[in-house]
Design brief:
Helix 5 packs across helix 6. The chain is an alpha+beta fold. The protein is globular. The strands form 2 sheets. The protein has a 7-stranded mixed sheet, with helices on both faces. A 5-stranded mixed sheet has the order 1-2-3-5-4, covered by helices on one side. The chain has 8 helices and 12 strands.
């Protein structure tokens, strides 16, 4: 009988190892993961775990940090983490981040119940949107990104994020992902891109991560990200995706509030999960079932 196997992502930029899938008993690979983390100087090991295997990482000393609802074709994914470098497991802004969540949940009650429909026009390529379907002011337009936008997008992302878990500042990366599994949407004002967001789609699981949300400073506070989230959700629904989720910066009130107001559920926090700007940051998990 074959031994345990694991599908790994060794993420040098974020100094972490992600176990995206494993077969056999987790305890058979736990020691190998620890040795690999030590050899590669990784500070965190993350394990994506289906419900039926949820106790296995726990028995090996891993702590559950959160859940992505509906991640496995409707079944929940439980995220367990271990910290070979103990300092990596310490959340230095926990009180502030807890308050962000409390404020979001208080304000989010009753909001996000009536998403407007943009999916049909997205799917069919019709981008002359009916006014009753959008909340954007007249001078703003929402549309999918095309290859000709990649250079401008890369510039905006490089200006918005000093560091980021993926190389959004590279035009080649944006072009490559546009042609694969990532849907980028943007908002323009008088022909200038002022806000962006994307959905990383996993057709095998039927789930998608809404990510790469950015609004230029002069246009923040106008609800542009909310419109992009809704547009992405509707397109995902048209493509028969079952759920969407996001991992957003735990210390940022604005982006957390945007997802809370759109009916997303807060389901956990990944401590010092990735490098953004000042160093490693905690990331909150927000989830929503689309069907």
């Amino acid at each position: 009988m074959p031994g345990a196997r694991a599908e790994l992502v060794i993420d040098y930029y974020n100094r972490r190892i992600k176990v995206m899938d494993f077969t056999g008993l987790f305890e058979e690979i736990s020691g190998t993961l620890e040795a690999l983390a030590e050899a590669e100087e990784m500070g965190k090991i993350i394990v994506y775990t289906p419900p039926e295997k949820g106790n296995e990482p726990k028995t090996c000393g891993y702590a559950e940090e959160g859940t992505i609802r509906g991640y496995y074709a409707g079944k929940d994914c439980h995220i367990f983490s271990s910290y070979p470098k103990n300092s990596r497991g310490i959340s230095f802004h926990k009180e502030k981040e807890d308050q962000v969540i409390k404020n979001c949940l208080r304000k989010g009650r009753g909001e996000g119940k009536n998403p407007h429909k943009l999916g049909d026009s997205l799917k069919k390529g019709r981008w002359k949107l009916q006014k009753e379907n959008i909340r954007l002011p007249e001078e703003y337009t929402l549309r999918p990104a095309v290859q000709a936008d990649a250079s401008t997008m890369a510039t905006l992302y490089s200006q918005g994020f000093q560091f980021y878990p993926t190389p959004l500042h590279m035009e080649s990366y944006l072009l490559k992902t546009m042609d694969s599994n990532v849907l980028y949407l943007l908002v323009e004002k008088q022909g200038e891109i002022v806000s962006l967001a994307s959905a990383e789609m996993d057709s095998e699981t039927g789930s998608a991560e809404i990510t790469d949300c950015l609004t230029v400073p002069s246009e923040r506070g106008k609800g542009l990200i909310k419109e992009l989230i809704t547009a992405l959700e509707n397109e995902l629904s048209c493509r028969n995706f079952l759920s969407s989720y996001t991992l957003c910066r735990a210390s940022s009130p604005g982006i957390n509030a945007a997802f809370a107001s759109q009916g997303y559920a807060y389901t956990g926090r990944l401590v010092n999960n990735c490098r953004i700007e000042r160093g490693f940051e905690d990331m909150n998990i927000w989830c929503k079932r689309l069907k």
